[in-house]
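Quiz preparation item.
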C-alpha cells in the first residue's frame, strides 16, 4: 500500500471495522484521510488517529452533499488524487430494528437506504475525478449476509444491504472501464456500536460459534486483512465481488 492514499468513512471508535481497516492499511504504508460523523465522535476519532502517520481527519455525514464535496476537495488538495475509499457507514432507526418488519416506516426505510446504500454512489461519484488522476482506484464497502437471507432481527438493514450489494455490482460495471474496482466484504457478526443496535446480537454470535465451519466468530483484524487485499494491487483483477469473511457460515444449511 506504499504510495497509496485512501479515505476511510465510518470510524466511531476503536472497535469499528473501519478503524481496523484504517489501522491495517496504514501499517501497510498507506496515507489516510479519516472521517467521523458529528462533533460527538470528533475527540475520540482524533485521539485514535494519533497512531496514524500524518492523517487528515475530517467531519462527514454521508447524507450531506455539501460535506461530501468539502471532504473530497480537502483530500484532493492534500493528496493530489485518491487510490481507495472504504465505506463503513450504516444506520437504521431503533424503531425499525425492534418492531416487526411489516411495521417498517417509510421515513425509516428512506433513511436506512440513504445512509447505508445510496451513500456509496455519492462517495464513488465524488471519488471518480480523484481516482482518474491516479489511473484507477479501489472502492470497498461492508455488508452482511442479512442481504440475502432472513435474520429476523436485522430487518430493514437486510433490505439496505441487498441494495448496497446490487449497488456494488452496478458501480463496478460503470467504473470498471476507468480501472476503478468496487467490492464488498460480507463480515460475520462482530460486537461494535452498530451491532449493539441489533436485538439478540449475542445469540447470533453463539450460533456462528456453534455452526460456522471454523466454529468461531471473526474479529475486526481479520476483516481488515481481507480489506487490505481488496484495496491493494494484489486484487487488481477483482471487482463486483462480495467476499465472505465469516468463518464460512454463509455456506451452511441444516
Ligand atoms: P460502527 O463502529 O458503529 O460503525 C458504523 C459507522 O457508521 C459509525 O461510525 C456511524 O456513526 C457511521 N454512520 C452512521 N450514520 C452515518 C452518516 N449519516 N454519515 C456518516 N457516518 C455514519 O459499526 P461497524 O460494525 O464497524 O459497522 C461498519 C460497517 O460494517 C457497517 O456498514 C455495518 O453494517 C457493517 N457490518 C457490521 C457487522 C457487525 O457485525 N458489526 C457485520 C457485517 C457488516 P455514528 O456512530 O455516529 O452513528
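Solution:
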Amino acid at each position: 500500500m506504499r504510495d497509496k492514499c485512501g479515505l476511510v468513512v465510518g470510524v466511531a471508535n476503536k472497535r469499528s471495522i473501519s478503524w481496523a481497516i484504517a489501522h491495517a492499511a496504514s501499517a501497510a504504508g498507506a496515507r489516510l484521510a479519516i472521517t467521523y460523523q458529528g462533533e460527538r465522535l470528533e475527540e475520540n476519532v482524533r485521539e485514535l488517529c494519533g497512531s496514524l502517520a500524518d492523517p487528515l481527519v475530517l467531519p462527514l455525514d454521508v447524507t450531506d452533499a455539501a460535506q461530501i464535496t468539502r471532504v473530497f476537495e480537502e483530500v484532493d488538495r492534500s493528496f493530489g488524487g485518491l487510490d481507495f475509499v472504504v465505506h463503513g457507514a450504516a444506520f437504521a432507526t431503533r424503531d425499525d430494528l425492534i418492531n416487526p418488519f411489516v411495521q417498517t416506516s417509510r421515513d425509516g426505510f428512506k433513511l436506512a437506504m440513504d445512509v447505508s446504500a445510496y451513500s456509496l454512489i455519492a462517495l464513488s461519484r465524488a471519488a471518480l475525478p480523484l481516482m482518474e488522476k491516479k489511473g484507477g482506484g479501489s472502492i470497498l464497502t461492508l455488508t452482511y449476509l442479512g442481504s440475502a437471507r432472513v435474520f429476523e432481527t436485522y430487518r430493514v438493514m437486510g433490505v439496505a444491504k441487498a441494495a448496497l450489494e446490487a449497488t456494488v455490482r452496478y458501480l463496478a460495471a460503470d467504473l470498471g472501464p476507468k480501472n476503478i474496482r468496487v467490492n464488498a466484504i460480507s463480515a460475520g457478526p462482530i460486537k461494535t456500536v452498530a451491532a449493539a443496535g441489533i436485538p439478540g446480537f449475542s445469540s447470533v454470535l453463539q450460533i456462528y460459534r456453534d455452526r460456522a465451519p471454523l466454529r468461531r466468530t471473526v474479529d475486526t483484524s481479520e476483516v481488515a486483512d481481507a480489506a487490505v487485499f481488496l484495496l491493494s494491487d494484489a486484487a487488481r483483477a477483482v471487482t463486483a465481488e462480495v467476499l465472505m469473511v465469516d468463518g464460512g457460515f454463509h455456506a451452511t444449511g441444516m
